[in-house]
Structure formats: C-alpha cells, structure tokens
Amino acid sequence: MRGLFITFIVFFVAAFTPLIAQEGMEGLRHGKLENGMTYYVKHSKAEPGRVSFYLVQNVGSILEEDHENGLAHFLEHMAFNGTTHFPEGVMPYLRGKGIFTFNARTGVNQTVYNIEDVPTVNRGLVDTCMFIVKDWCSEILLKDKDIDDERGVIIEEWRSHYNVGRRLQEGSAPVVYNHTKYARRNVIGSVELLKSFPYDVLREFYHKWYRPDLQCVIVVGDVDEVEYEKQVRELFGQIPARENPRERYEVEIPDRADMDYMLILDEENPSKMISYHQRVHRVTDLDEVGRKSYSFKARIFNALWGQRLSRIVNANREKFLSASAEFGTFVRNYNGFSIDVVPYKNQDAEAFEQVWSVWEEICRFGFTDSEVERVQESIFQELQKMESAVEKESNPYYVNVFQANFLSGTPFHDQKEELDLLKEALLEITTEDMNAWVRSWASDTSRVVVVSGNDKDYKYLTKEQVLDIMAKVGEKDLTPEVVEHEIPAGFDLGLQAGTIKKVKKLDRFKAEEWTLSNGARVFYKYVEEGHGFFSMACSSHGGRSVVATEDLPTLTAMQALTMKSGLYKYDLNTLKELVQGKQVRLNMMIGDYTEGFGGSTKVDNAELLFQLFYLMFEQPRFEKQAFDKYVERARYMYENRRQTPQDLVQDSIRKLTVREDERNRDLGGAYFDKMNFERLEPLYRERFSNAKEFVFCIVGDIGRDEAVRLTSEYIGALPSRKGKVEKYIIRNYDVDVDTLAREFKVQMPGDKGMVNIALENDAKFSDKEQLALNIWGQMLRNRFFSIVREQEGATYGVNVDVNSMTFPYRKATLMIGFDTQRDKVESMKEIIFSELEKSKNEFFVESELTPILISIKRGQAQADENIGVDYWMSVLNNYAEYGTDITDHKIFNKTIESITVEDIRNVARKFLKNVKLRDWVIKSEEVNPLSDWEN
Description:
It is a single chain. This protein is α+β, with helices and mostly antiparallel strands. It is about 40% helix and about 20% strand. The strands form four sheets. Strands 12-13-14-18-15-17-16 form a seven-stranded mixed beta sheet, with helices on both faces. Strands 1-2-6-3-5-4 form a six-stranded mixed beta sheet, sandwiched between helices.
C-alpha cells in the first residue's frame, strides 16, 4: 500500500478493503444457480471483439490437512492436464487455437483460473472455452500417469522458488502467524509430500472442496449478457449440488498478550533487519463509506509515515541504512502493521530506537491538520485524474469487484458511482478521525519482532533488548513534531526568450517539429487522451561514453545526487513545498550513450514544469553535506555487502566475458575515494549546457499556443555553444572468443542445477529475419516446454529470449535458461542442443507457427487500441532519433502475412552458422542454511 496508486484499477482493488457494491450495473446479469454456484456475465466494450472467462474458487491451501499440504496448488496444475472433454490436456488445445493468455493462481484462501482475450468472432472457440471452465469445476480427470508426470514439474517449481526470501518467510512463519495453520501452509507444499502422496488423496481433496457452492464463474467481454447468462445457467446448472458438504471454515489467529520474538539467520541473507509486526482484526461493522474511509486512512497513514522518515533522512540525521512502515492486508479477516529497519553495522539498537521514537510520537501526539490535509489533497487530485478513465470501461475492474463480491459478500458499483463514493469518503476524513483510527488498533497485543541476519557471530538485538528500547522510548519526554509549511514564492527568472525559427509539419503524426533560435529542436503533438496532462522529455547524444575515465566515479555520485539538494536557490525541502500538490514529476537520466530529462504534470502547472526544465539545465544544486553522506553510505554498503556463492560465480563469468580496461576495471573501495565533490557541478554542466545538442518532445493535452509560448520563453532561453555537436563513442567490451563454457560448484541449499546458455551472432538480419528470429524463439520455448517440462518433468519452465539489436553495435542473441536437479543437467542440455540442431535441418510444422502469428497480430491490434501520451512520446522519440515511423504497420503486416516455416528454418540456419556460445552451469553442493543458525 506504500505510495500513490497511479492507475484507476490498482486504486480500486486495494487488497485489504473489498469493493462495496449494489445491484443494477448496466450490462450485467448475475445470480446463483440452484446448485449453489454464483455467476456474473458482463457485457463490456473495453476490449471489442474479445471475451474472457474466470473461475473463482473459495478454496486455497488453508483448507488442506497436513497430509494434503500443497494439493490445492497441485490440483490447479492438474486442471490443465486432462479433463472429460479435453483428455489430452487443456493447454495444448488453447495454444493450438492461438490463445496464450490463460493461467491459474492458488492462494492461501482462494484459487482463480482464467482464459482471456478469446475472439468472439470464433463462436465455436468461445463456447469451447466455456466447456473448459465447466470441466474445471467438476471433471478434471486426475489420472495416475498425469499425476505422476506433474509431480516432477511442481517439484521443479518448488526448486526454482527455493531462495533466501522464501526460507526466511517460512522460517519466521510460526511467530508471525502465532503458530496457527497459516504457519504450516506455504501453498506449494514439501518435496517429500509431493513425491509420495497417494493418488486418492488428491482426488478426495478435489471432491471435497471443488463444488458449486464454493465456485463462481465470471464472463466479461463483448458478448450479449442475456444470451450468455442463459448459456451459463444451462451449462453450469448441470453440475449436481454436493450432498452434506464440508463446512468452508475460516482459520482464526488468536491474539497474544506478550510479544513474540524470533532470530532467523541465513548465509545468503543480503542484510540484517529488525522487523516489527502487529496483527489487527479487520473491522467488519462498517457501512459503505466507512469501509472506503478505512482504506483511505491506511493510505494517508502510510504516506505520513514515509514523510516523517524522509525528513529525518533529508536532514542527514538517520541512524539507519533504510527504514519503512506500512499498514495493509495480512490474511483473510486480518490487517497488519509493520516496521522494517535495516541498521548500520553494530548500530542496531540506535537505529531501532530512532524509528520506534517516530511511532511513539505518532501514537502519543497523532498527526497534524496540515499533514493530513496535504496528503488528502494529493489523493483527491489522483481521483480527479481518474475521472477521464471512468468513461472507458475496464475489464480488470469488473473482474476484481465481482471476485470481491463473491468471496467477501460485498456489493459493487459501476466505475463512475464508485469514484463518487471514493471522493465522498476521502473528503469526510478529519485529522481527529485519523488519530482515532490509529488509536483504534495500536496496542500492546499480537506483536511480533523478527530479527534476521547472515552472521551467527554478530550481536543481534535480543527480545529483552527490544522490549527495553520500547520501554525507554515510552518514557521519553517527547515533543510533537512541528513542520512549518511555508510555500515559497515562484520562480522569477527574468529570462531572455528565444524564438521559433522554423516549423515543419509532420502530417503523418499530426505533429510539428520546431527549430528554435538557439538550435534546439522541439517535437510537439497535441493528444486529447492526456485528459488534462502532458509529458515532456529531452535527450542528447554522449552519455557515459564521453565522460573521462577519471570522472566516472563522480558521474555515479552525480546521478544519485541530482535534485537531492534541490534546485536554484531552493533546498530539497523547499523545492518539495513548491511542487506540493501540483502532480509534477521530473527525473534525470544518463545512460551509456545519451542523457536527458523527463517530466509530466497537469496542463494547469505547465509553466512550472518548463521552469524546472530550464533550472535543471542552468541551476543545478549540489551540497557538500549531502555528497559526503552519499559517499559514506555507498562505501558502507559496498564494504558490508554480502556476496553469496552465486554472486561470486557471476563475478567469475563477468571476468570471462567482459574485456577489461581502465574504464570498467573494478577499483574496489578506491572507487569511492575518486568521487570528487569539486567536479560534480562542472561535470553536470558538461552534460547539460548546450541546447542545440538536445531534442525535446512535448506530448499531451496542452494547446499549441501555450506550448509555443512556454517553449520560446524557457527552452528558447537555454544557451548554446558553438562548435561541433557532441557524438557518443561506441564502446564494446565483449570478448572475442567463440566458445566459453564453465561448470561452477557452489555451496547453496538444495539439489539444484542452473543452466544458462547464450548464443550470439553479429551478422546483419533484415526486418523480416528479425521477426523470424523472434518467432523462432517462441517456437523453441514451446518445444522446450513440451519436452523438458511436460515429457521429462525436469524443470518448471525453460526461459527463451531472443534479442536483436543494431545499436550501439549489431548483435543478435538467443538466451536459454532453466533450473533442474544436478544429475539432470547434462541430459537436459542434450535435449536443448538437439532441438537447436533440428532447427537448421527440419521444418517446424504449420500448427506450431499459426498460433504464434495469431498471438502477434492480436498483440499488435491491442497496442493500436491503447494509443495515448506514452505511445506518441515513443513515436516522436523514434522519429527524432532514427527517422523511423513506427506507426506505419503496412510493412509489418505484409511481413507477418508472408512468414513461413521455411523462413524460420532459414533464419535459424543463418543464426547458428557463425554463432558464439556462452554455456554456464552452476551446481549446488547441498548445505542446510538453517542448521545451527535458527533460534
């Protein structure tokens, strides 16, 4: 829940507050069948010509008994293997029809299946997808062989997720969940049980819990809701109701009077952390506006916590490496509050005490009117920005509110009415409400502290020390934080404006190119879909490639510190006051070959954004105190970094594959010694001092006359230098060796082999060949999925990625990666290389090509439907940089229609003819990271 929610959908589906609802949504038919099944059928024009299907089961891993641990997730996998009407598997059928957007997700309390973007023009396919959903409800075959084949796949999924994060999460679960069933349910189960559970145990779980009264079917798309409701009722009404069904129970987590504690250590843990958790019962007796108000209070609370921590950091007073606090969802029926503190080495007590003091101040004195009102204003502006979005339907919105209605019994609204209710709830919140809300749940019960680290000899905070710090802070003579919010005067720059010397009409884009008197080029396009907002960006050639070797460490500091001390005559806090509530976003970028700025804001604040752009060029601000703090912090993180065995392997691979010179040599701690404060501003000005080297793009709902005025006044006022325009310097550090292959053995938990194969070719590939390369990669991915995962059960998935670049130099790359057991590495690699060899000599079949072409065409069509500010910014940037028109689909459409399996074979032959091979294998030497470590 941290930070602002930018999109309409994400905002509406805030996890710990189900959406509220009412009957009467236009285009909706919903109800409950006699067998107990719930359904929703919604006509939506959000995605014309497409429909999506969902099956929501009020069933998750929490319903498993110990001998069933992991079977809810296993059952989800089996749904794609064989069903009554699809005995050979659902997955191959859907892929064969060009449907690739299907999936299922098993959670602790629910399981959701989906088949999306089905073309309604193919009525037979639509009806078949409905049958698939019906089969999932009650007709998954669960044959012995299919179960055995899937065991290996899920064990490989377990292996792929078995990392330090998961080990810490599962290790701390007993105290976090107060030793309840939640602590013993990790969704995927254990390898031992996955290998050995009897077939009938899975079948019994399916029969016990997959039943109509716990199921919900959702159909959303460009369909006739009356007709499809009839079809749903007829088809799903055939499923018999279950006699004497088991109760769908909820698991309660008892309150705990004393604070629980755990120290958990793992050698691969990258940092030490002190985590405080407080569990809170979810409030259920709220009315509609009250539920929304509760959600907003949590969001305001999180924002204000972040601001208080930021003020400590901005004042260079922090005693911690990082700290955060958040109130949000925990598990069904519970919310939770957490504080995470990463301390400097041997300063654990000081760091925790400082952050706990912030919490004590909030509990004791609450928030102030000005704090609350400013965050409310910011959220309200986000709601206003959503007003334009509610005019366009959103299928994810419908799916999420229907799911919440089914699982939580809460009503729903259409998007416009929902937005009105959100505004009402937000504006009713007072500072007294906020402080009372905090007091309503902040208590000394159900508290947990988990201390995690990586060094068993380190002196971590004990339970007694944590309690002593809490007591000490509770007795402190604290005073309320007083923050003065004085809005500074605006910028009075007194600039000498430039002029637009040349206007070039770009009719193909309905845009214009302006050349200014200082030589800067500006591309302008009005985009109504900006809905009161616009974006602005600029870039020039050069970047890191032209920076002197001795300045590279300072460049790193410069990138981190830009705007961290403010701009012009305003320090950072004053600058934040200036832009408070104005929805201004601004950033600086320096890449290997380019540098530039990007920003966006409301049209009402256009002048402010142009002023900031000007000041970014002309009035950067760097302070010695901030520089010294950054260097100290960066050095500390480097010297105290925790290098895992995998990190050391990656270092070895880098030494093998990267040609080293003075520009990219690892200097160790000496790198930070070379950061020079005196060079910060001069180096910055070298990159941003010549307007004629920059190309600007202005895109959005800003009128031409206003754009012309502001461009002339601010961009036109930027100085230019005489002489040649700076060019980047191509730097290629790839080693010129045809084959590099190594096997590394490292100490890491589990029986694990990790394979990464990269094939590189620097030949020239035409546009059609680049498309064929991409398709070849997708075909290989499907082949590997079928063989290595489905037939061999040796991996959860084989990643295949094809990349073809022409800048900064020409190179096409095919990357293949997967995890498996150590003793299966060689045999699976043989399969991979065998399939690559087949690509040169055998044709793929049309049935492999056609679904991929359908998917590509559908993706292009969807992209064309989502044209807005970001799209046109990309179009103009591409045209300005390369002179290409990415809106012209004629060549692409012609190429996609002409691609054949012979084209795929030919491009595979060409790619593999003079290829460079990089073949890396990492195998574990098994250790138990928690033995002798966990207390």
